[in-house]
Sequence to fold (204 residues):
Amino acid sequence: MRRFERGETVIRREIMRGEVWFAAPHICVQDTDDLIVTYLPGGAEFGFPQHGSFPVGRHPWEGAGHTRWSGHGALHLHFPGVDHAIFIFWHGDQREWAGWYFNLQDAPRRTELGFDTLDHELDLWWAAGEPTWEWKDVDKFAATGPDRYPGRMAEIQAEGDRIAGLLDAGERWWDEGWKDWRPDPAWSVPTLPAAWADIPWTTR
Fold:
């Protein structure tokens, strides 16, 4: 699959139990062998497929009426072959850095429109100014995991434990300078193409 150029639209889809479950249009910031960086701007629309068997139900954001990303936008650092990404958020009128969010998810699988993954619910969060990190959504992972990720619960937990161990050891496998990144003011909010749910995908 082709590489994406800075400023191009990249579609990040989630594949759940062999079906497209969710999508959002991002903007490419960087696409290299070692790192795929995308930006999800405020106002970007979410895509929820209309057809499917949905064995674990519809995406929870759809049920909640959460149809677009809001706020300052989020920067996503994706590592090829690695089952997590690092999300960077900002908040407030001064666009202050909020912290590092270690999002457990499938390693990115490239498509003609972008890449596919699957969020694993369980995450780690290290808020700006705090001395250490904390687990997020532990109860949700325990409740939804057996149906969403059958046979993979231990594997997903192990990746979270690996990240925790690296953080506790003072390891930094990403450039902390990304917290000072700002989007190009010339960029417009991307949209989902008409066939976003129909392009081929592979199931992990």
